[in-house]
Amino acid sequence: MEMNVRDDKQLVEIWLTNAEKNDPALQDGLKDIYDKYKKKKYLVAVFESGEKDLYQGVLDLLAYNKRRCAELEVQREKKQQAAAVER
């Protein structure tokens, strides 16, 4: 487990490995951390390691975003053309 306390942002980041995220004893210990920082009005964010291939996931996300940007651009152009015809 890695824990980063960012006092300037009132934020606590907790990073868990696959083994740690499935450990009941560690999960119980997190409750103490939540309580401690809740009293200080900090946000506690827990990040758990994933099961899928990170490289492929990033490639898929980039491909989706590229496709979505193209779709939005086509929609924007159609609206502009429709507005120009109405004038």
Structure description:
This protein is α+β, with helices and mostly antiparallel strands. It has three helices and three strands. It is elongated and about 65 Å long. β1 and β2 form a beta hairpin. It folds into two domains: 50 residues, no CATH class; 36 residues. The chain has a three-stranded mixed β-sheet.
Q: Keywords for this structure?
A:
87 residues, alpha+beta, 2 domains, three-stranded mixed β-sheet, 61% helix
Question: What's the short version?
Answer:
The chain has 87 residues and is α+β, with helices and mostly antiparallel strands. The chain has 3 helices and 3 strands.
Instruction: Give the CA-CA distance, first to last residue.
Output: 62 Å
Low-confidence stretches are: none
Radius of gyration, whole Å: 22 Å
Largest sheet: 3 strands, mixed
DSSP strand count: 3
The largest beta-sheet arranges its strands as 1-2-3
Count of helical regions: 3
Overall tally of structural domains: 2
Mean pLDDT across all residues, rounded? Answer: 93
Helix content estimate: 55-70%
**Strand composition percent:** 15-25%
